[in-house]
Amino acid sequence: MSKPLHDTLKRVTDRIMDRSRDSRAAYLAKVEAAKAKGPGRAHLTCGNLAHAFAASPEVDKPDLASARVPNVGIVTAYNDMLSAHQPYEHYPQLIRETARSFGGTAQVAGGVPAMCDGVTQGQDGMDISLFSRDLIAMATGVALSHDVFDSAVFLGVCDKIVPGLVIGAATFGHLPAVFLPAGPMPSGQGNEEKTKVRQDYAKGLVGREALLASEMASYHSAGTCTFYGTANSNQMLMEFMGLHMPGTSFINPGTELRDAVTRAAVRQALSITAKGNDFRPVADILDAKAFVNGMVGLNATGGSTNLLIHLVAMAKAAGLIVTLEDFEDISEVTPLLARAYPNGLADVNMFHAAGGLGVVVAELLSEGMLHEDAKSVVGDSMEAYTTEPRLDANGEAEWVKGAAGSLDDKIVRAISNPFQSQGGLKKLTGSLGTAVMKVSAVAPERHVIEAPVRIFQDQDAVKQAFKQNEFTSDTIVVVRFQGPKANGMPELHSLTPVLGILQERGLKVALVTDGRMSGASGKVPAAIHVCPEALDGGPIAKLRDGDIVRVDAKTGVLDIVDPAVLERGPVTADLSGQQIGMGRELFATFRASVSSVETGATQF
Known about the structure:
This protein is an alpha/beta fold. It has 22 helices and 14 strands.
């Protein structure tokens, strides 16, 4: 039997609701006004309606014209450059056919941009990656503005794409919303071997041909990359926040079961509209309980630090104010129950086979570590997310009781025997500002480092210094002017092999930056998302080479040791070279108006 809700979760939930009282009330008033108008097609003129389904199949036109049956809008982030999104090419046809078979209709409402961070890592295009999230939200708004849909399904998986779609869905909070995952690619070369080849390349031990062969063996087919980075953390969140069908995140593409759960999701999207008896608008699902559950899931699985930014922005779209303090308090009481790369050797396929999210949810529920009564697209209890889909005799999805416990305690643990007693994320605060660190993959003996800093303005300069053997003693590498206002807050993932090599050489090293690291960042301590950012004159802009900084993940401290440093004026930087080319000039207004990273680095 489940225990009552943990006191900390109750306190954080109440705190979110209290500080969000006015903004949430305004949001719900907007939603209620939209709901009161009824389904949009009822208010369109004949000309409006004719345009809305002029190209639809003749079999659908009578239903669309009469508005008798629900019409599902499809918002898709399909492109075939993203391996995770390539399977979506054929989803619209499957969705339309499924909707028709259950007495409904479906139309592609619109597409949203979707960039692959794997392609742009370390490249100029990464400077617009974070901003693409808000552009995706805006494109979702354009898609749903036609006001002819009774619910919507969202096709997206990767880093900024799911958060952008959630922001868009929350903005249309009067509509039910179901998110349809596409699943991870089958396992290829192991993540540990991939990392070794990357480090060997950085050392000059292997050439580019060997590196490319290794990467192609790791990223080899359609589906999400198999490490537990931001994309797969997104999928976890959609289950913990009730927007997926249960247990569907990590089913491989191109399988009978994947098609079957997609059909079931479409049927659910039809059944929860205002035309039926189980109306579930997304505003009812995306409440404070959902976001607290999401934060618990992020900590319990050692998920991506990028979600600390995205969850704040997603919550804001639903009228809720979430802060870093909320993450910190939840991390303090949430045990780490999963080890998937980079927090362990397993990939997400192995994690799924070992019991996966269903076991993690069940374990958390057993100790009152989730809001059990949170609403979802399938019901009013998180118990549904302890079940898993199987094919019935007719080849359709049915949900059965999930694994009774972990099938491999090297990957998934019982809550009575966690990998660590606290979550994988740590807030750091001090005279250098605030930051976060993903500690779940960092060895405990590396949680504290006090050392002189080396200052850099971009990651290429760090790599050049490494090649010239300039790092010979304990060093904290500071890469500044990487915040959202400066250059869009790119990920600095390409520093991981270099810093990892220095660590292997016996040096104590850490990264401090107002930028981001990839969701795949791992064993090197990294104080990231430093706020205020350098362009805002934050203390990070006052540092000079040789200043001593303390990064302490045990006590949550990020300090400049000599207080005299704070008396200096901040340095400035010429960022013009990082604001033109590869489309970056198109995002000048985004850089000028973006909020701080603590408030979601958002335009809204």
